[in-house]
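Hi L.,

You mentioned the student needs an example of a multi-chain input paired with its predicted structure. This one should do, with 668 residues in total across all chains.
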Amino acid sequence: MGKKITIEPVTRVEGHGKVTILLDNDNKVTRSRFHIVEFRGFERFVQGRPYWEAPVLVQRLCGICPVSHHLAAAKATDVIVGLGSSGLSPTAEKMRRLMHYGQIFQSHVLHFFHLVSPDLLFGIDGDPAVRNIIGVALKHKDLAVRGVVMRKFGQEIIRATAGKKIHGTGAIPGGINKNLSIEERDFFLDGKAIPSIDAMIGWALDTVNFFKQFHKEHRRFIDEYAAFPSNHLSLVAKDGALDLYHGVLRAVDTDGKRILDDVDYREYLDYIGEEVRSWSYMKFPYLKSLGKKKGWYRVGPLARLNTCDYIPSPLAQKEFEEYKAYTNGKPDNMSMHMHWARLIETLHSAEMIKMLLNDPDLQGTKLVKQGKKVPEGVGLIEAPRGTLLHHFRINENDQITMCNLIVSTTNNNEPMNRAVNWVAVNTISGKPEVTEGLLNGVEVAIRAYDPCLSCATHAIGKMPLEVSIIDADESVVSRGWKNIDGQ
Amino acid sequence: MSKPVIATASLAGCFGCHMSILDIDERILDLIELVEFNKSPVDDIKTFTKMCDVGIIEGGCCNSENVHVLKDFRKNCGILVSLGECAIMGGLPALRNGIPIKECLEEAYLHGPTIEKGNKIIPNDDELPMILDRVYPCHEIVKIDYFIPGCPPRADLIWDALVSLVKGTPMNLAYETVKYD
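Structure written out for the whole complex:
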């Protein structure tokens, strides 16, 4: 009699998810899958809506990083209103960048403090009753408070630029609907109402150092856990700098060889295809030049630091150099280094926010531009967890007739399945008993990739687990809920 | 006296309402003092371990799993609250209600420009829950006691409502706090 382990749910953002692991009679893993079990149908139901609604409609895919969808859709509509992919006024582009770096900052902070720190502070197999953010708040109050205040800072930046912390309306086709007043700017600079941006940069640096210290003490875990070779894809600036808002598309293979050489993302249909598999609502993207089997790639912080040549802010660049030296300049394929890369990006975002806040262009009054309308637009952005693409076609009545979305989590579909399989094969396979700690190990691997999916069930805790025992023909013979305390 | 017990769930929403709960910022630390969490992403409890005073639901019902979770909440919570647009009216996902679900699936998996030509696979595995014919607001499935509007409801509104509910005090609903945007 074989067994099936189900870990469910791994819910929302692009959908609810769960993991199934099949074991044979000797408890050897024969198959593992990471399923996305919910379906929305955005591609169809936005058809017929006017294109200018896209930035506020489509962001409702995800309440965890709505700014990313808001901006990706806005960039696609910039093209539609005739501005090409980079024709915004300086005020509009910089307001959007400020909004975006505020979003990256809050999302990365949420991921590290609220989701990941419990695993680091209490251990993968630590007591599940305290292995959550409440446990962190009770035992490491200063750390928890910092996480809360840093996230608040990022959310306030979003409010100042988008009008609202969640599902704002700041970006419109061809520009932005407000600039930043001096009062709004000083709120972030003077440290009176909330700690200043300088404090944020200092705390972000502290967090990088916290992780580096943890790495020193747990080198094997951080370097080996769920590590595997892959291709990496992201946006980079035209000069190769890390750029999360705009640029060209670059991909490298596991050795660092360019396999996508700084192409215009509006031509993405020439380079990227998607495979459908029957057991998940999430598609499997791949680079067409390499085919379905070899063309899959990773996106997100790890991929971005593998594709870019440098980071255009001083403190983050210094950390980047140390980070690159660890792999002798070669691409980093270690899944758990995603956290290191993410924290370097957090520091970079804080530095970018400071630079932008001090830029007088933000008080400019040229907010919107318009050119000659075209019937199609593609927008692409680096969301906190990776490359995000929106593509719309419209008719003569300005109604959307086609919508294609490739979201970050989808880009990481195959990698997350690989990570789950790594944990299943390396830690669960052959063990006489599958403990709660081992199953949390599966979640730890997913968590490294996808703050959104983790947020869904994990915003302030961790996933519940359901274990089913099934016989060889996969019918369930017994089932029991496995709670945090293993009951 | 023991603390009031709270449970939360996200169904067919975007998790933005849960994010808005987090936007109470430093008051999260007060909340931990004020209430005890049962089944919720907050604390890993998968099945209800006791009756809860307040259950908070984000999102409507778009599949069989959502309905199952919602009924479980009704059974185990004294007061059930619909939090946000999707729980109250189906919200944005309910835009699909006028469209046959088959068309939505075909658009996503057969017609998309990145889908390989000739693909005939639409996800249908036994591991995937049954999709409902349309997206239902929570009060069409079970009785809901309170509704907190907004997309998402503002953090201050959520905080005031929670404090009033667990302390049993009347709620001062200032006009400008009730927003539907």
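You could point out the following to them. The first strand of chain A starts at residue 3 and ends at 7. The two ends of chain A are 23 Å apart (CA to CA).

Best wishes,
N.
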